[in-house]
Amino acid sequence: MIESIQEPIEVLVRFVGGRIEPFRFRWNQSVFRIAKVTGAWEDREGQYRRLHFSVLTDNDDYFELRFHSGDFIWVLSKASLDG
Q: Which residue in 45, 2, 48, 5 sits closest to 25, CA to CA?
């Protein structure tokens, strides 16, 4: 079941070919290694871009991460801990 979380998180990213690619994040005192980015899209909130990423971890847990370009904050939007 996918659960709405909406909590700030810390994310490590790479810049690959002009794109942001998240590869690790910290949530609830745990570090999650991203095995695969399964989707990426963007939308706008006023004048600011929001980047969204759907990711799978090594344990096949599913997360949606969001980056807000106005305040440079990452948020864990959704999670499904099936692993």
A: 5
CA distances from 9 to 17, 19, 50, 66, 74 (A): 25, 20, 15, 10, 6
- Return the sign of the alpha-carbon dihedral for residues 15, 4, 68, 39: positive
**Segment 22-46, tens digit of pLDDT:** 999 999 999 999 999 999 999 999 9
Pick from 17, 13, 27, 16: which is nearest to 63 by CA? 27
80 token code pair:
């499904």
